[in-house]
């Protein structure tokens, strides 16, 4: 039985998601504290989830219009790639934000009980979920689509980048506007009118400010990084797919050149997992 190298990226993507799930379960098992810390952390978590659901609901309406237009003018392959790209980007942002709001309070509790080293470990693994989710979903989505369309409809992969870009734009800008509005509102009302210190939980706008930090700087940035990560691979695939015969004589087989960015990204995911394992071993 001959191994198909084109299956390597999506297979590693699935493996990456399994590792993400295991890290997420480890984070949830860490003590979350009690009293005010747990209460405030829960409020931030719930607020972030509510905002994301509302944002994605509005985003889905806009994406649906683009999906129909792509289907009409560019065909079902491009429309499918657009849909997969949008869903993968939104999923990466949601996973990262959800994990961050869970890890935040556990990092605080670890710092209180065991010191900065334990807090750094929890924070590191909370952040690694976002990074691995971006890489794994990118390889799973783009790698899977390349397996089906790479040789016949490679131009359809551009739809994947467009879907990822749409979600990144809404998440980054929408989250940024929300967090800045909450920040300014909290300062105006809390410090100037009520005389409450900055970031005091008695000011409800402080909770909204922290929600904005999570949805803008984590979910928004996660979708943004996902778009850049996949966009760079798609751009390289497009360049390889349009090389002239003269260039191919010097550079080699076209299919191998098109697959090269996916192969390098797959290697990057493996190296990232190895790095996380070393951090875990050193923390023990």
What is the topological layout?
Elements: H1 8-29, H2 36-73, H3 76-113, H4 116-149, H5 158-194, H6 204-241, H7 245-251, H8 254-283
Structural class comes to mainly alpha
Counted by DSSP, the helix tally is 8
Rg result? 21 Å
The percentage of residues in β strands lies in under 5%
Number of strands: 0
Written description of the protein model:
With 284 residues, the protein is mostly helical. The protein has one domain (5-25, 33-283). Helices cover 86% and strands 0% of the residues. It has helices at 8-29, 36-73, 76-113, 116-149, 158-194, 204-241, 245-251, 254-283.
Task: Compose a concise summary of this entry.
The chain is mostly helical. The chain contains eight helices and no strands.
Question: Which key terms come to mind for this protein?
Answer:
transmembrane helix; 284 residues; 8 helices; PPase-energised_H-pump; mainly alpha; membrane; globular; ion transport; Sodium-translocating pyrophosphatase
